Amino acid sequence: MNYDETLEFLYSALPMYQRVGTIAVKKDLTNIRLLCKALGNPQDRFRSVHIAGTNGKGSSAHMLAAILHVAGYKTGLYTSPHLKNFTERIKINGREIPESEVTRIVAGNKELLEQIKPSFFEMSVAMAFEYFARQNVDIAIVETGLGGRLDSTNILNPEVVLITNISLDHTQMLGNTITKIAVEKGGIIKRNTPVVISESDIQTTDVFKRIASEKNASITFADTIYTWDDTGTRLFDNHNKQIVCISETNYLPEYQLKNIPGVLAVTELLRRKQYNIEEDAVTHGLCDFQKLTHFKGRWQVIYDKPLTICDTAHNIAGINEVIKEINKLQFRKLHMVWGMVDDKDAVKICSLLPKHASYYFCKPDIPRGMPAERLHTAAKKAGLKGSIIKNVDRAITEAIKQAHSDDLIFIGGSTFVVAEIKDI
Length: 424
Hints:
The protein has helices spanning 3-13, 17-20, 30-38, 57-70, 99-108, 110-116, 120-134, 171-174, 178-185, 205-214, 222-225, 254-257, 260-272, 279-287, 289-293, 316-328, 346-350, 372-381, 392-402, 415-418, and strands at 47-52, 75-78, 90-92, 95-96, 139-143, 160-163, 195-197, 219-221, 226-228, 234-237, 242-246, 300-303, 307-310, 334-338, 358-361, 386-388, 408-412. The strands form three sheets. The chain has an eight-stranded mixed beta sheet with strand order 4-3-2-5-1-6-7-8, sandwiched between helices. Helix 18 (372-381) links the parallel strand 15 (358-361) and strand 16. It is globular. Helices cover 40% and strands 16% of the residues. It folds into two domains: 3-293, UDP-N-acetylmuramoyl-L-alanine:D-glutamate ligase (3-Layer(aba) Sandwich); 300-418, Protein-Tyrosine Phosphatase, Chain A. By secondary structure, the protein is of the alpha/beta class. Helix 4 (57-70) packs across helix 13 (260-272) and helix 4 packs across helix 14 (279-287).
């Protein structure tokens, strides 16, 4: 098999949730356990930090990976979904898994895969674990997929667990209330393993405390220890009554700053486990995490004139944060290139968006993509005006054509819209 044939096998023989939806999700850990057992249980041959949450888990994973890399540790990083290439999911010290390794792992286990018939995600997780073990990483930062309790990554025995925040997303699989979703995400809390919660919430605090108590796991609510000042430039350690971070990260959007207390709390717990992480490594890692890990798609500037920004936010909580950032900017007119997937409440989400923007409604090129016509209809109900340009690239081209140099173009609504940007 060559690399193209390997990807074709992965995408067709092994269903991918991002492309086909819930039919691809296996709601138990049987397959991943069988796969990893056949591979020699690689998940037991490296240390890890396990991260779940509705929003912020990808950013937090990249921040932690950058800090540990700068501190001198050979650091694996597993995240999903990818934007351009499958290899983005699996990295060591910011370098993607070589295509030859992807082919080796799949070709060498093709008979096993055809026998077990795992999902795309199950195979990608097993591949990451095998690669990290083979490469002898010192530690791996592993992000869950959709949930936690039944997520394929949940066979790890991590050093620390991090849960970023909880909001409504993937309700058809995780539950239709914040509490139910918290139970699913909290399923990654392990016995006798410390857990950090990045953002406290009255609806989830008792859930996490109960699960942690049942597992004899110490629990830390990071935002009660570390708080930003009103300017978002100084972070205080409330326990030690001192400034722990004078932010060189103030180029980050506000929603990224919310992730830093959780990252710092995990870092402190790793120090207590004898990881040597100097303050300079923390500062450097946080300031440069996007470059160090090649993190893409979160409040990323694509062009300067007209200012063109993309973001992969795709649920109500995430989109609200993005709108806050848009409202902070100065521009003559706003152009929104917008596409969604078909399991989202388009009317509800469109009702959050700015009313006085020009919209270019498109469809991400995946089976789950919401038809641009249906999105346009939902947007009209929400009071938005715009045109239907089905192809993402053509929609971006048209927005640039219509925009003045002092305008703002925003591209988003779905990870898969952002994935089709050519210059990302």
